[in-house]
Amino acid sequence: MTQQNGPDATPPSVTTQEEMLTEATRVPLWDPEYDDVLVCRQVRQETHDVKTFVFSGREPRDFRYYPGQFMTFELPIEGMVTRCYTISASAARPYRLEITVKRVPGGPASNWLHDNMIPGKEVNVSGPGGEFTTDATADEKFLFISAGSGITPMMSMTRTACDLSEPNDLHFIHAARTPSDMIFHDELLLLASQNSGLKLSFTCDTAAAHHRWTGFTGRLSLSMLSLMSPDFKDRKIFCCGPGRFMEGVRNMLGEAGFDMEKYYEESFDFGAETAGTLEEHASVAPEISEQTFRVSFSKTGHVVECSPGMTILSAAREAGLRPMSSCQRGICGTCKSKLISGDIDMHHNGGIRQREIDQGKILICCSTPLSDIEVEI
Question: pTM of the entire structure?
C-alpha cells in the first residue's frame, strides 16, 4: 500500500482519549416502553421488619424519575400479583432504583419479597408513575410528615434535595411505633448534620425505659406539631402514611386553620400492600353516554348490561366476578385484560404501556364501553 502524503492527503481517523472515555461511560436511558426487567443487586435490612431492595437493569441504564414516584412490580405469587412500591432512592443517582418494603403479616407480596428477593434475582416491572412529588430545593418552605413506611417518598425527595444542593428550608417529621421501628433514622441524622436547611423531628408511640430515646413520645398532636415546626402554617405540607394517621393530620391542620390548598398527601391504603396515589389526582372522568352496552366475558361466559359511566370492572363485579384489581385508578396495572372486540374509553394514569394498548390490552378499572364489547375475563 502506498501512503499518500501532501496537502491533499486525507488525515487518518484518530479517536481521542476524551472521546473514548465519553463512549465508555455513555449509559442508555431506561425506556419504560421496552425495558421491563430489573435485577436485584443488594438487600439491606433497615429495621427488624423492613428491607431495602436495590435494583438496576440487566445492562446499565439511566433511570429518569421524579422523587416520590413509584414502580409497579409483577411478583410470581399464585400466578402473578402486581404491587406498586415507591422508589426510596435519590433521583439524582440515576443508575439504580431502591424500594423499601415493610413485612406485612399475612401480606403475600411483602412476605414474598422479604423471603425470596435476593441479589441476582430478576423481576418484571413497569413505570415509573405517580404525581406525588416536589422539588425540595425550591425557594419555598416545606414540611414533610410521614409515619411508618410512608417515609419512602419523603426519603426520596429529601435524598434528592441533599444530592442536588441543599434543602432550602425543610422540616421533616416522622412518626413510628417504637424507636426500633424508626426507618432511616441514622441516615436522616447524617443528612441533617451535612445540610443546614434540613430540620428533623421524630416521635414514637412508646419508648422502652432502657432505650436511650431523645425524641418526642406519643402520637402526633397539634401541640406537638407546633413545638416541632412552629411556623407550619407558612409551609407547603406533604404527608404520607396509614389512612388513620393522615386523617388525623388533616383534622389537626383543619383545627389549626391551615390553608389546605397547600396540603398534599399520598395514600398507601387503596389496595393491600400497594403504594398509593395522590388523593387529589383521581383519573379523569369520561363523558357519560346515555346508552347501555352489553359486556361479554369470554372465559366465564357471563354477559351483563353496562350502565352509563360504569367501568368494565364494575360491570364484572355486578356479574358476580372478582377479577384481580387494586388501585382502581389506572395506576398499578393489576386489572390489565385483553379487549377482544368493541370500543372503549380508557383514562389511565400510567398503569399500562402504549405497546400493550397497541396489542389490545386495557385496564378495566378505568375503561367504559362505547359499544358492545367482549373482554377476556
Answer: 0.76
What does the angle CA 296 – CA 302 – CA 303 come to, to the nearest 5 degrees? 50
CA 359 to chain centre: 26
> 61-65, 184-188, 345-349: lowest mean pLDDT where?
345-349
Cβ atoms of residues 94 and 62 within 8 Å:
yes
Predicted confidence (pLDDT) per residue in 217-275, tens digit: 999 999 999 999 999 999 999 999 998 999 999 999 999 999 999 999 986 544 434 33
Angle (nearest 5°) at CA 144 between 139 and 149: 145
* The three-state (H, E, C) secondary structure of the chain, written as one string: CCCCCCCCCCCCCCCCHHHHHHHHHCCCECCCCCCCEEEEEEEEEEECCEEEEEEEECCCCECCCCCCCEEEEEECCCCCEEEEEEECCCCCCCCCEEEEEECCCCCHHHHHHHHHCCCCCEEEEEEEECCCCCCCCCCCCEEEEEEHHHHHHHHHHHHHHHHHCCCCCEEEEEEECCHHHCCCHHHHHHHHHHCCCEEEEEEECCCCCCCCCCCEECCCCHHHHHHHCCCHHHCEEEEEECHHHHHHHHHHHHHHCCCHHHEEEEECCCCCCCCCCECCCCCCCCCCCCCCEEEEECCCCCEEEECCCCCHHHHHHHCCCCCCCCCCCCCCCCCEEEEEECCEEECCCCCCCHHHHHCCEEEHHHEEECCCEEECC
Rounded to whole angstroms, what are the CA distances from 187 to 47, 66, 93, 159, 374? 13, 21, 16, 10, 52
Pair type for strands 170-176 and 198-204 = parallel
Q: Phi first, then psi: what are they for 275, rounded to 5°?
A: -75, 150
Tens-place pLDDT, residues 323-366? 877 777 887 787 889 999 999 999 987 788 888 899 999 999 99
Q: How far is Cα 74 from Cα 182, in angstroms, rounded to an integer?
A: 28
Cα 224 to the center of its chain, rounded Å: 29
Check residue 20 and give left, alpha or beta (phi > 0: left; psi -120 to 50: alpha): alpha
d(CA 80, CA 74): 6
For residue 163, count other CB atoms closer than 10 A to its CB. Answer: 15
